[in-house]
Amino acid sequence: MAEPERAVLSRLLSFTQPSPALETVGGCQTVAEVRVLVVNTGGTIGMIPRSEGLAPEANKLAGALAKIPILHDVAYAKETKLYSRLALGDDSLVLPLSKENKRIIYTITELSPLLDSANMSPADWGKIAKCLEANYEKHDGFVILHGTDTMAYTASALSFMCENLGKTIVLTGSQVPIYELRNDGRSNLLGSLLIAGQFVIPEVCLYFYNKLYRGNRVTKVDAESFNAFSSPNLPPLANAEVDFTINWETVWRSNTTKKFEVHTNMNSNVGILRIFPGITTAAVKAFLQSPMEGVVLETYGSGNAPNNRPDLLEELKKATDRDVVILNCTQCLRGAVSLVYATGKTLLDVGVIPGADMTPEAALAKLSYVLGKPQLNLAEKRKMLNENLRGEITVIPIGTRITLRDSKFIQGIAKYLYISCKEELEAVRDALTPALACTAAKTGDLDALKALQNMGANLSSGDYDGRTPLHVASCEGNLELVTYLLESGATVYAKDRFGATPLMNAIKFRHPDVISLLRKTGAHLSSQELVNVGTELCSLAFKGDIDGLRAWHLGGVDLNQQGYDGKSPLQVVMHHVDIYDMLLLEPNT
Known about the structure:
It contains 23 helices and 21 strands. A nine-stranded mixed sheet has the order 6-7-3-8-10-11-12-15-16, with helices on both faces. Strands 18-19-20-21 form a four-stranded parallel sheet, sandwiched between helices. A two-stranded antiparallel ribbon has the order 1-2.
C-alpha cells in the first residue's frame, strides 16, 4: 500500500465511530414521507380511444390511478387523514410503503392542453420547465409523463434548460395506454415514482422498460416494443430488477454552488441536415439560408462527408463565415465523430464543430440552448458547444484515473480480509467509502476527502443512516469542507433516515455561514422538516435564544409562524426587548 493511502486509511479508521441507531416511535421505525410532482403533458400513457384514434383526455388520469392498488394506498390515506394533514387536493395519491421505508406522496398536475408528443414544441418545453421551477422547493422529485415519439428531444432539451439541477427529474410514458388490460404504463410510472422519491440523482432522466437513462443520451429505436429506447453510448444510470441498482459513478453532478434556475430562451432557428449520397448543392444551400442559425449535420461513420465535392464544402464554408453554427454528428447509432479520416478533417477545415458522440436529439437541443444565450458572443458559443455541459458527450480523461477498485488502498484492505474477486472488492469499496468520507468530514480533514475523491470515491454517498459527508460538515460548521463538497457535486437535497437535510443540520447547530452558502446553492427545508416549526420558534423565543431564531430565519423560515397554542414568536417574546425588536425588523422570507 502506498504511503499516502496508508496515511489516509490509518487516520480515518482511527476516528470511525458507529452511527446511532435509527430512532423509533412507538416501537416502530419512523417512516419518511416524500413529495413527488407528476407533470402530465399527454402522450400514449393517458390516452383513450376515440373515433379519430387514440387521444389524451384532461382530468382523467388521477381518478384512474386512484383505483390501482400498486399506485395508491387508499387505506393509508384514510387512516392518516392524508389529505387534510398535508392540505392535498384530489389529484394527490400515495404509494404503498417502499422497501426503503418511505411513503411517496405524489400530486398530478396537467399542462393545458394535453398533447400527443408529435405536437410538442420548444414553447411546450418552456411550459414544462416553468412548472418545474414554480414547484421546485415544494417537492423532492419530479416525474414528467410524455409521449414516446419526441420524448428524447424533450429529455435532451430539459437537461440543458434546467441549470444547476440538484433533484431528480424522470421522464416516462408508455407504448400502450395505462387503461388497457395489458400495458407498460403502470410499471413505467411506478418505477419512475420510486426513483424520483427514493434517490437523489440530480439529472433529467428517462425511465423505460426497467432502465433509467440519462435524458440527453437516449433515442427511440422501436415503435412496437416495450423496450423502445436505447442509450447507445452510455450505460443506464440504474436498472430496476429485484432491487434498484444505481450506477453512482456514472451519475452527472453540476459541481457548483449556484442555485437552480431554468433557461427558457431556446433558439428555434436550428435544424438537422442529413448527408446522403448524391445530395445536391442546391438543397444544402437552401437549408443553410437565413433565418437558420444552427445546424446539426448528420454525416457518415465517424463524422465523414464527401471531400470530392468542393461545391458542397463551399456552401458549408459560406454558412460558417456568416456565423451559422454547424455541429457534426454521426448517423450511426453508436460511436463518435473523430478526425481519423481525411473526409472528416475536411469538415473541420470549413468551420464545422465536431459533436463527439452526441445523439442528434441532444445536439439539436444543445444548439438551441447555447444559441439562445444572447450574452455570449459567437466565439463563446462555439467554445460552449465543445464543452460537456450535462454529460451529453463522453470525455476521455487524460492519463489513467486511480479508482478504489484497482488501487493499492483497496488491495491492501482486501489482503487482510482475504478478498480477491472483483465483486467482493467492489463490495468493500462501496461499504468503506461512506464511513471514511463522513469521518473525514467530521474531523475536518480536507486532504483525506481529496484523497478519497482522487481514488474514485463518491462524496455524495451516505452511511447506513443516510448521512452524507455534507450532512456531517454542515453539523460541524466547517465552511471550507462544505464549499469543497458542493463544488465536488455533493447534493444539498440528500436526506438521512430521519428526513433531515444538510440545511436542517446547519440550522440546528447554528452555523450561519454554512446556512447562507447552502441557501445560495438552492437548499431549502422540506415539508417534513417544517412540521411543528412554529412551536420550535416559540420555544426559542421564550428562552430568549436569538441565535437560534436567526439560524431559522437564515434557513428561509418565516418567523411569524404560530405555535401549537396559536401564538407567534412575536407574541411570546414581548418581555425580551432585543428579540422583539429583531422580529419586527427581520423581513418575512
